[in-house]
Every structure is written in C-alpha cells, then in structure tokens.
Amino acid sequence: MTGRSALTFGRTRLAPSPVERWLWRVTATILLVHVVLALWSGFRAIWQVLALDVVAPTTVHAGGDTVGYDAWSSGRVPVTIVVELVQGPWHDTVAVDVMRQGWIAGWDPRVFHARRMIPLDASRLRRFSREDYALFHRG
Predict the structure, then answer these.
(1) 89: exposed, middle or buried (C-beta count within 10 Å: 0-12, 13-18, 19+)?
(2) pLDDT for 65-86, tens place per residue?
(3) What pairs with residue 71 in β-bridges?
C-alpha cells in the first residue's frame, strides 16, 4: 500500500457521466415546474372566485332590459352562478350557469372568465309590480 490511494481506501470523486448530467437536469426542471405550479395552486385554493359583478341597469322596468354577470374564477373548483329577480315574496331565477374549471385543477394555472347578458321579456316580469326590482346573484 503505497501512495495516496491507500489512505483514502480507493475512494475518488468521479465526474458524472453525460447521461447522469442529463437525468439530473431533466429531474430538476420537472421538480421546479411542479413546485411553482403547486405554489400557484395553493393560492388558487384560497382565492377561488376572483370577481363576480352584476351587469344590469339600476332598475329593471320593462321587457327588453338586459341583466347579466361578469365573473372571474381561478378554475380550481366549479363555480355555480345563479341570477335572480327578487321583489318582496316573488323571485324568479333568470339564469343558472356553471363556470368551467381547469383540466387538472392543481396543474392548470389559467384564470377563467365568464360573461353572460340575458334579455328579459315582458312575460317574465308580468307577476312583479311596477316598483323597482332588485337583482341578486349568488356565486
């Protein structure tokens, strides 16, 4: 036993082969992308409905007026939007829509937008009095 190798018991640090370097780079890239998507997914799990606005005139008086909504969702969960006309004991559901959601919720970072305008006809407004109608939305 002579020389330096006898003291280190034959352990030497070998440079990684080209295949090992390629595997390391691919694995590190996949892991980094997965961590970034997981962080974004966690944020989206907290803030599921980003915005939900009623689009309507201040009062609805006659057929031909339009009501609707403008909604933004993270796409993490399905969002059901119900638009109703309400006046005292009377209420009428104008629209029920489900916003689309992402492909795989944790890995799809897109933000989804939905907008719908619904014209009201006179037959829908007939059982309400001529007072102002209130427009409610649940989302």
Answers:
(1) exposed
(2) 888 899 998 888 888 999 888 8
(3) 52, 114
Q: Which of 33, 126, 45 is CA-nearest to residue 87?
A: 126
Query: Could you give the CA distance from residue 51 to residue 74 in angstroms, rounded to a whole number?
Result: 10
122's CB contacts (< 8 A; 6+ apart) are 62, 63
- List, in sequence order, every residue forming a beta bridge with 90; answer none if it has no partner: 87
Short-list 6, 132, 125, 114, CA closest to 57 = 132
pTM, full prediction: 0.63
**Residue linked to tokens 């399905």:** 78
Strand arrangement, sheet containing 134-138: 90-99, 79-87, 134-138
The residues, any chain, with a CB within 8 Å of residue 37's CB and separated by 6 or more, are 106, 107, 109
